[in-house]
Fold this sequence. Notes:
Layout lengths: L8 E6 L1 H19 L6 E7 L3 H8 L6 E3 L2 E4 L12 E4 L9 E9 L3 H11 L5 E9 L12 E5 L5 E2 L15 E4 L7
Parallel strand pairs: 2-3, 2-4, 2-6, 6-7, 7-8
Antiparallel strand pairs: 1-10, 4-5, 9-10
Helix pairs in contact: 1-2
The structure holds inosinic acid and magnesium ion.
Amino acid sequence: MADPILPDIDRVLIPRDRIAQRVAELAVDIAGHYQHQEAGLTLVPILSGSLIFLADLIRQLPMKMKIGLMTVSSYTGASTKGRPAVVLKDLTLDIEGQNVLVIDDILDTGNTLRLVIRELATRCPNTLKSCVLLRKPAKAPPDLNPDFVGFDIEDAFVVGYGLDYDNHYRNYPDIGILKPELYRS
Ligand code: IMP
Ligand code: MG
């Protein structure tokens, strides 16, 4: 059966084997960083974009952890323009005294990560760090420095491996650049 997603992809930016290799490297870095920490590790993935990254990453982290889901929206519907980020669903876990690692799919304007870090910092975690799979250095504000970064990428709108356009394409296994004629910016 022909894959109906492929015609919508302009070109593959990061193929699946390269993603897998880099996620494994990130897991080694993260595990090394937290291995001697006494306080528990709590991952806070930002939904929905970080779903697939999270699933692959945590299965390579040989440590006890809690996961607290948080849903934040900055791109609403069929648009690729960043809006002010809003917390749509807050996490229900208490993170006081915990080592918190925020996980997001991509750092673009930084609105999302800045909001989440500012919010979680008020809840007295022991440590508060962040990990993004992708970063667009052309747009990411220099004051926001995630502690773990998978790939720096060009300033293009990408989909796949959890990243969406209007909630589509999350299941595309590579990270690809969407054909510009298919989206409104
Ligand atoms: P920021 O708030 O502008 O940093 O954007 C972060 C959020 O916007 C990410 O969590 C993604 O959900 C979404 N986003 C930003 N850039 C892209 C992209 O190129 N493709 C798909 N989603 C994106
Ligand atoms: Mg997102």
